[in-house]
Amino acid sequence: MEKKFAKILALLLAVSLLLAGCAPMAQEAPAGLEAGETFEEIEYSRPDIPQMEQAVARLQESLEKLSLPSTLRKQIESCYDCYYNYDTMLSLADIRSCQDLSDSFYREEYAWCLENRPRVQQLMDEMYLSCARSMYAPLMETFFFWDGFMDQYGGEEAQDQPEEIYELYRRENELINSYRSLIAQPYIELDGQSLNYQESLAAASEEEAYRLIRAYYEQYDQLLGDIYAQLVSIRRQQAQLLGYDSYEQMEYAVVYERDYSPQQAREYLDDIKEYMVPLYEQLMDSQAYSYIYWEYMPQEELLDILAGAAENMGEEIEGSFSFMAEHRLFDVELRPNKASISFQAYLSDYEAPFLFLSPYGDQSDVLSFAHEFGHFTDAYINYNAYETTDLAECFSQSMEYLTLFYLDGTMEEEEAEELLFYKVLNTLELYVGQAAIAEFESRVFSLPDQQLNTDNINRLYLEICMDYGLCDGTTEEQSWGWIDISHLFESPFYVISYPVTNDIAMQIFALELEQPGQGLETFSRMLPRTYDSLMPTVEEARLESPFSQDRIVSALACLESVLDSVKKF
Fold first, then answer.
1. Segments in 100-256 forming alpha helices (H)
2. Strand residues in 348-462 grouped as ranges (E)
3. How high is the pLDDT of residue 475?
């Protein structure tokens, strides 16, 4: 099309949009949940992929001819409606499958949704590319999409995804489904019997439990190791196909949109190893956890404690908890057949976050609940608006620390102090343990193809755990623990976010220690966020970058100060 005609068309469209009262397009607010409607009442229905295909095809047809702006808007919204319905049903199937791993219906529905995710992703890519390359492209970014849309999908460097990538995505999701099926209800062979591992472990004595655990690792290490090695291989192929030097680099840039590089992360891990590991080893040698005495905590007591803490923090935080409680958007119950994972999901069609907790049934659950409630509150306040993983983890980890200061009237003072001591130990373990996993993952993806097998992965894990003081290397079992880390299988290169963002949470913790209310005020200023990534938000809040010089040293000093004040030993 000639440039002159394109400009005339753009002018006509702009006039039409303004006369029609159209503003730049935003997602329409879903109907949400009715007053008193609960999560249990939400119905699942398998997403209609052909309907989405038809919606994209209709839009593409309209883009190829003269169409009214209102028609284009309606058809784009139809594509989004299909996508958000798919996303909602995927989350719903995932939640309900995790609520009861023996439920074959939701396990199969989640597997189906996951299997079809590459097709849904492909359809969204087709929609964006068609819009960016149409005669309406000059106005698409202004009236329908986001800043930078044209550069992303219509610029000189924008190109169609290679068809082969969707096949790699499909194979990746098949492997994830295989992984989930294996861990859903593991059976082990022991003493000539086939035993349900989880049921047997729950009823076992200490001696029997050791035999069951060893049998599980012996029988599942190779099975899960093979799946992981295949995942690593397929993910490396994805990066190569898309033109990245490594899969790690691709995940940092594309999936997590991080404000820091793998090289900065490696230097950060080195600082943890140098400064945090010695104190961690010292505390473990002194058996610091043995000074903590937990008692059974029922679900009702856990909910009351967090409700009280949220009320003490007030405003948006109290409102978030009330919304969650009214609509029963949580599962914090301790019961058999429940997935050993904690997360927050979002049900887009209902404008509702959901909190899933795998509890231990004791006081430590207060912190785990607070962590996921931090995610819940962020999603609730911001309507699940896009943000990077690192920024999301800032809110969840900060909520853990803040909750410790707002337990008045919810826990006995001695219990609250016990929880503070536990949190300091837990923080050290987070820094050291998650740093070890992050280094392990990075080095696994660097293994040559001929060395990418379960035995070498086990050896590497053991070596790194010894470097970080997590084990002494005396038993074979110590090399198998990585198969329990779901992030490695399902969310590659996620774990580095835990130590990095914990540094931001530690700064909020330090502010609250210095002056009550100061940390909460900083958190509350950050919550209705101006930015969607980590570093600009940190800068706006006048906090330090985790990668600034001596930040690990400062965080360590804060932890040591709290340990001295608690004086457990």
1. 104-132, 137-143, 149-153, 163-184, 197-203, 206-241, 247-250
2. 352-356
3. 86
